[in-house]
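FORM 7B: Structural annotation worksheet

SECTION A. Query
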Amino acid sequence: MSSQPVGVDLSWAGQTLRALREGRGLSQSELARRTGSPRTYLIALEQGKHEPSLDLLGRIATALGYPLREVLWALAGEPYADPAAPLAARVRLRRERLGLRPAELAARAGTTRATVSQIEGGVNANPGLGLLVRLAAALQCCPSELAPEPATPRPGGPGPATHPAG
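SECTION B. Predicted structure
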């Protein structure tokens, strides 16, 4: 039996991250420098050997000049239309709209009640991609719908992504 999280194909996600990086013309070394992550870890991500956290996906998105939601959309689903809100609020509001208790959400997402409480309390604002996908499935939404708006770009970092006029 596979230990891979339900709903996440890490190999495919890694290939997609690599395509996004190469599409911006960045080497693995440059992406590592811009994200503050070891190059060897980024290589392992691209090979599907590790699950990226929400924080790391945010740093990768910033380094590549993409909004975090676009990166999550490329990896896992459609963009979210609601106004910006932190992960804690997004999970809690969706759970409440569905009439679920935290323990019910935890059971549906294959996690613990404590983890759901930490996420909704803002203590854990950086779940791994697998948990994010399982939470989204349990909340009947796409993982990108749970992603917060990106913070203001870091000084010296790339600006917002621009799209050529069509």
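SECTION C. Observations
The CA atoms of residues 2 and 9 lie 11 Å apart. Confidence is low (pLDDT under 50) at residues 1-6, 78-82, 153-166.

SECTION D. Sign-off
Analyst initials: ____
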